[in-house]
Amino acid sequence: MKALPELYEQHKGKVSDKWSLYLKEYDELLSPYRDRSVNLLEIGIQNGGSLEIWSQYFPKAIRLVGCDINPNCAQLEYEDARIAVVVGDANSDESESAILSHAKKFDIIIDDGSHTSGDIVRSFARYFPYLKPGGILLAEDLHCSYWQGYQGGLYNPFSSITFFKRLGDVVNFEHWGRPGSRSTVLAGFAEHYGVTFSEEALAAVHSVQFVNSLCVVKKAPAPENVLGERLIVGETEPVLPLRETLSASPASTPDQSENPWTMLDRAPDEQFDTLKQQLAQREAQRADLSNRLAEESQRVSALDELVQHDAQQMQSLGEQHSADLRRIEELKGQILQHQQRAEEMERIVAQVWSSTSWKATSPLRIVGTQAKHLRTLGGGASHLFKHYGAIGSVRKVLEVMRTEGVAGFRHRVEQQVELQAENDYAEWVRLYDSLKDEDRKQIRRIVAEWVDPPLISIVVPTYNPSAAWFTEAVDSVRNQLYPNWELCIADDASTDPAVRPLLEKIAASDSRIKVVFREQNGHISAASNSALSLATGQWVALLDHDDLLPEHALYCVAKAIIEDPSVRMIYSDEDKMNEKGQRYSPYFKCDWNPDLFYSHNMFSHLGVYQKQLLDEIGGFRLGVEGSQDYDLALRCIERIDARAIHHIPRVLYHWRVHAESTASGADAKPYAMLAGMRAINEHFERTGVKGKVELVGPGYHASYDLEPTPPLVSLIIPTRNGVELLRQCVSSIREKTDYPNYELIIIDNGSDDPATLSYLRYIESPTVRVIRDDRPFNFSALNNVGAAAASGEVLGLINNDIEVISPSWLREMVSHALRPEVGAVGAKLSYPNDRIQHAGVVLGMGGVAEHAHKQLPRTAYGYFSRASLISGFSAVTGACLIVRKALYQELGGLNEELAVAYNDIDFCLRLKQAGYRNIFLPSAELYHHESATRGPESDPAKLERLAREEQYMWERWEAWLKHDPAYSPNLTLERQDFTLAWPPRVRALF
């Protein structure tokens, strides 16, 4: 048979080119394969002549497959049926499938493709696993790996020649002396080029041979690639005795875990590039910090001057305050005198004619009114001193009087007195959360009529409990109006000798009480599992050993189970109880809210689970103590539909507050917060969520991953005149937003101001489009026009009076909007005076809907931190709303019947109706330059339009407006501050 150089010299068909050195080397390397039934793959065939030559060189070949990215290769035709051509990028899944359709395995693979380092490394990772044992891979033209244009360089850590050098280390894997896998040494290439190396394939690399610009990699079964046993032959040993000690011994490798050159995470040359980038970033940060330091120095100087000025004012105010206090005491004395005088006059007027009495006491009625007014102001002052102290009160008074005047200060005091009355929880409990004897009788009658009521097992782990508090906890169970319960107690090896007799006495007092004593302390998760093992009920309720259940708690739970057989998890509202037994700080929760649940454990107390569900997940998990109930709920929701989670909007749990309980705040048990963070992150891993949670002040903040190249976002900004607001809006977006891929679409609704028109012409560019629309103002229609013109995968509805605060606003909002279960994402908007304008929307408030936490300080946490934690709301404002374009189009955009008001609410409710969640994202902060003191519209046409749009909302969304699932029926619809509802809007107990 002719040698390969001779075949090349005599070839007359399609053009092929090879270096002369290659022909000689290939003839030596490939001659053993000439008599075999081989499959050959060549990546990069140009004119296709090489395949004709290979068909002659391998007469017994089965398949000769060529692949080339050039579409003109589709024109190549061959008489030899063994030859096949695949047109496409060899490193695409489509081309890989096409290649493997011709042959599943190959004996010879030749990479003569683009010669770029990235393509060579990717081709090796993709096709070496398809090389047969005993096969050979040839990578050509590696001289290109020294050139920048081919992703190379003499010392480039990620060049193709460096990659094949690393394969030499893979061949010698057994001698590394460190734990890990063969792919460890290629981790940098895997990350740099986005590939994965098969450990099985790497174990089959037998040898790596270099010839000028050529690398030869041979493959063999993994057992043939180890060093094997040491063979010693001969009989005499005049120098060293080897036969007995080393004969047939395997190779041994000393431990290199202390060798710094072995234990590096990455090769030094790979780290150099990373360190170089980090150094550049640090230098940029240093320069930025220097600038900020200079700015801060200027601010400090200015603040020093302000402090001195304020100190002088404080001294003056302190003197005035002392005078005011003296005046208050004088007034109190006068009031007392008036009261005494009134009593005396009452005795006198009883003796005179009625007509005369009215005339005589008229001045006294005036005095009485003044006295009442003074008492009101006194109550407000008391609140001020209680919360701010003497000096703090003066500062607060100064701030209010400076910004709102004397009348404003008086209004604030009266408002605070009114608010205290409206939020009097003790009075609210007396009126709406206390049972009368008739109520108890009625509940017992209802329970007696139930057929096969569920048995509820109450699980209580104990460890050195306070005898008094634990006895109260047990009594709260004994006093339940619903009798079908069992109390399952597990003592976690208490060290207090008084505990065991107490538990034994309690167990002996009621057959429904079971106790198990653990021999070793295992912490709360293990103890809870021990208590759970005693449970025989269909349902399990969790109770801490120092907390209390109100007498109707289990009745409400059983009623929910009977009314909805599909329910599998139940939670209720809760409040706290101090050491004096006084109830306070009620947490009136919303219905099931997954995003709020990822921000803090809203399920918590009273938590009730279907026993079968707890059995399925294996009970409590060890290792998350402190947040074991959080972890339990997380693992349960992974197995059930969200519709199987039921909320009872009643306080069914009293959480006792003392120094060691988490009820006193997250700081009481900081390890519990860390355990909760771990539990959520592991839940994300189990459920395939690409994201993580981190601790923030009042809870957790969930962030979700974006792709390396995030989608284009089209920000739609309707405007008319008002150039200063528009300029501020656009400039803040362009200067502060750290999201890299967005366009602005400005809908000009008939601007006629020359300055505005000039500005619009100035900013227009490929990334800032201006669309003219002169129709009468219709906010919905203008946004729909922008959406139709948008190129982005994601839309942003942005008012023209928005100003960016947080640079990450768009990145975070988009990351949530891309979640498949999410509809609209709303931002936290504040007025320029740093008071909240929008932190979610509450339905039914103020007629149709109102913004939650309105006028609260921007940095305030809000009601149970809902102003500062990610949570679901039924709606968010359209002043800054992010949504996927596909969803927007699916719903038909904003409703143009609602030209001005409620179009965003209607859109959000249609998203909810379609099964999506609307999210409030407090970390996305922007200013909204809407008037914080805007009064009601008085124009008759506008009032008529508003009434018409309000009527539309009630006709379409009445059920939602009457019950907002993201809000509590125990909270008011009269204010935006989450104060109590008088009366609550909950269903009757029976």
From TrEMBL:
Domain Glycosyltransferase 2-like, residue spans: 457-615, 714-837
Signal peptide span: none
Molecular function, one GO term: glycosyltransferase activity
Keywords: Coiled coil, Transferase
A Pfam family hit: Methyltransf_24
Coiled coil among keywords: yes
Coiled-coil zones: 272-348
PANTHER family assigned to the protein according to its UniProt record, in alphabetical order: RHAMNOSYLTRANSFERASE WBBL
Name recorded for this polypeptide: Glycosyltransferase, GT2 family
Protein's organism: Halopseudomonas xinjiangensis
Source species taxonomy: Bacteria, Pseudomonadati, Pseudomonadota, Gammaproteobacteria, Pseudomonadales
